[in-house]
Amino acid sequence: MIDSHCHLNFSAFNSDRKQVLQTCTERGVSSLVIPGTQANSWDNLISLCKRSTRLNFALGLHPYFLDDYCESHLQQLDELLTLQKGHVVAVGEIGLDFSLSIDSDLQEQVFAAQICLAEQHDLPIIVHHRRSHNALIRILKEKCFGNGGIIHAFSGSFQEAQTYIELGFKLGVGGIITYPRAKKTRAVIAKVPLTSLVLETDAPDMPINNKQGQRNSPIYLPIILEALQALRCESAEVVKQACWQNTLDILANIKR
């Protein structure tokens, strides 16, 4: 299994990161993708991932951290994408979060600029969304972005899912589907093409059902897979293999 979205570099894992990776191995989680979130953490993220053949990194400016944004961050990102060509798997985590107090125009400006960088460096993108599907889809269409990517923690409508899929994106399937009350998202994930789904935990955030209030971890990815297998009409092994291949298809630079 591949965890396509996990923040293993966050301080929540400082005390037991090595043990978490060992438990991942025991549970069949063989690769992890760690998205970047802010410029001042990119170097440490790259260093962490280069110490393990199982860790992969993306680089991006997350809307949550734009309070300290300056234009030089985009230049720094451009330079790192060039320097890390063949190693970086995507531009991300980028996107729009309209639940934040951060100016929406600034969010859209930075998101659009990072789409352009992804296009220039021939990379997919990993997209954060919250109350922002319409704006995200509008910008992706305006930019004619053709490299696709992953819509992280997808929780939109079936129509929105179809639109993203038509634009070349996979949908990130995380802990939300382990909650019986998440009926809308579970119904959409059960219905979309299997070729459009990838697994993720978003650890240490987005805990699975019955783990509320606890640190989320990539060791729980098999539980998310089991929940997905229960929703789908295909056999469990077909679902597992498809999620693996879908991730490799969209993030071509993943270490193998």
TrEMBL record:
Residues the entry annotates as binding a divalent metal cation 2: H128, H152
EC class of the enzyme, as a word: hydrolase
Pfam families (UniProt xref): TatD_DNase
Entry superkingdom: Bacteria
Keyword Cytoplasm on entry: no
GO molecular-function terms, A-Z: hydrolase activity, acting on ester bonds; metal ion binding
Binding site for a divalent metal cation 1: H5, H7, E93, D202
Entries under PROSITE patterns matching the protein: TATD_1, TATD_3
InterPro entries to which the protein is assigned, alphabetical: DNase_TatD-rel_CS, Metal_Hydrolase, TatD-like
EC number: 3.1.-.-
GO-annotated cellular components: cytosol
Family: Belongs to the metallo-dependent hydrolases superfamily. TatD-type hydrolase family.
Name of the protein this chain belongs to: Putative metal-dependent hydrolase YjjV
Lineage of origin: Bacteria, Pseudomonadati, Pseudomonadota, Gammaproteobacteria, Alteromonadales
